[in-house]
Amino acid sequence: PQLKIWADDVKCSHGATVGQLDEQGLFYLMSRGIDKLTAKNILIRAFANEILSQIELEQIKEPLLNRISEKLAVD
Fold first, then answer.
1. Nearest Cα to Cα of residue 17 among 46, 47, 55, 45
2. 55: Cβ–Cβ under 8 A, 6 or more apart, which residues?
3. What burial letters (b/e) apply to 46-56, b meaning 16+ CB within 10 Å?
4. Whose CA is closest to 21, among 2, 1, 50, 41?
5. Rounded Cα distance, 34 and 31, in Å
6. Cα separation of 64 and 55, whole Å?
7. Is the pLDDT of residue 71 over 50?
8. Which pTM does this prediction carry?
9. Which of 4, 19, 34, 52 is placed for a possible disulfide with 29 were both Cys, Cβ 3.0 to 4.6 Å?
């Protein structure tokens, strides 16, 4: 089979989801003595790792993981 696509026939879109961190997860971590900022970072990293685990190419995955770590670094 051969697929021919003309430039005027193509439509693209994207989506994004924004939400709050899981309050129960945050409460659980804080009840174990973890400060709020660190608890948030743990939840964000867990969410990101769940998504990034689907990327098989290490040359793509590693820079993304590094970038996330840089953004979440606490001074």
1. 47
2. 61, 64
3. eebeeeeeeee
4. 41
5. 7
6. 10
7. yes
8. 0.66
9. 34
Q: Tally the residues of the chain.
A: 75
The pair of structure tokens assigned to 56 is 């098989």
Q: What is the pLDDT of residues 1-53, one digit of tens each?
A: 677 777 776 777 777 777 788 899 999 999 999 999 999 999 998 988 898 99
- How many other C-beta atoms lie within 10 A of the C-beta of residue 13? 4
- Closest among 44, 47, 75, 48 to 64, alpha carbons compared: 48
User: Within 13 A of 36's CA, how many CA atoms are on the CB side?
Assistant: 2
Rounded-to-integer distance, Cα 66 and Cα 36, Å? 22
Chain position carrying tokens 């990034």: 52
